[in-house]
Design a protein that fits this description.
about 280 residues, alpha/beta, globular
């Protein structure tokens, strides 16, 4: 179960817009997705309550003993919407439990400065620095002129951006009505897909199952066949062959049976950290 979190130092940067649309995209592709709301504003919970029963289902937290949040059984994809005020220990504690981070950056100079400082802080965390937690930076709610300027500069910016999603009124209406871009008519969805496709391709790689080691089926079957042929053959004794004398039990060397290593306990990857509790 891979966990993707929307992180950002400032509120209103577009984390809820991205998280709801990503969760709806996962559900539309047939995945068992859970959308978790770590933000005290509970924007995602409000979005889920407004979601139409006819829309593809997006799950939310399963509450254990009234306090601990857990992913529902069968969940394969987890999307977390986080608050803007995560610092130091709280930030490091969250990153331990996630596999990928999406950092939205708003169009203003204040959004840019706060996000770039936050990105530097993220890159110092061991899990991010080692590459075990991937990070993608997305321009969010940029006006069309800023988007065109970014494209004209060949996608160059202060930090590499995966894509830029321009401001559009249907994103606000979807957030208020429990909808998403991927629930809208094909004409609207196709017009926005060029902005979303780089992010969706990146998420496909993040959520791709680990490649299983290739088994040498042909070699194994060939060895099995050869072993069977050897067992079926009767040994031919050459002239002058002398059978060895039988060895008594006292002359036999006892086999060496080294102790087996202790079994390693299996970690439950479906467990959600206990620090995520209802206030």
């Amino acid at each position: 179960m891979t966990v993707v979190a929307l992180l950002g130092r400032k509120g209103g940067s577009g984390k809820s817009t991205l998280s709801t649309n990503i969760a709806a995209w996962c559900a539309r592709n047939g995945h068992q997705v859970m959308l978790g709301d770590v933000d005290r504003q509970q924007s995602v919970r409000s979005w889920l309550q407004r979601r139409s029963p006819q829309a593809v289902k997006v799950n939310t937290w399963a509450v254990d003993n009234g306090k601990v949040f857990r992913a529902p059984p069968g969940t394969t994809h987890v999307v977390l919407d986080t608050p803007g005020g995560l610092y130091d220990h709280e930030l490091a504690k969250l990153v331990v439990w996630i596999d990928a981070i999406i950092l939205p950056i708003g169009p203003s100079v204040f959004d840019r400065d706060a996000s770039l400082d936050f990105l530097k802080e993220l890159q110092k965390l061991p899990k991010v620095a080692s590459g075990r937690c991937k990070v993608a930076v997305v321009g969010m709610r940029w006006p069309n002129e800023r988007v065109q300027e970014w494209h004209a500069r060949g996608g160059q910016w202060e930090t590499p951006l995966l894509t830029v999603i321009p401001d559009a009124p249907h994103y606000r209406s979807c957030l208020e009505n429990g909808g998403s871009l991927f629930d809208m008519p094909d004409a609207i969805r196709q017009s926005e897909m060029p902005h979303w496709q780089p992010l969706l391709d990146w998420l496909d790689k993040v959520w791709a199952p680990a490649a299983k080691p290739q088994t040498q089926t042909g070699s194994v079957s060939h060895l099995q066949t050869a072993a069977e042929q050897m067992r079926s053959r009767r040994p031919s004794l050459s002239p002058g062959f002398v059978r060895p004398q039988a060895i008594s039990a006292k002359q036999m060397v006892p086999p060496f049976n080294p102790p087996l290593p202790a079994a390693t306990p299996v970690q439950d990857k479906h467990w959600i950290p206990k620090w995520l509790r209802i206030a």
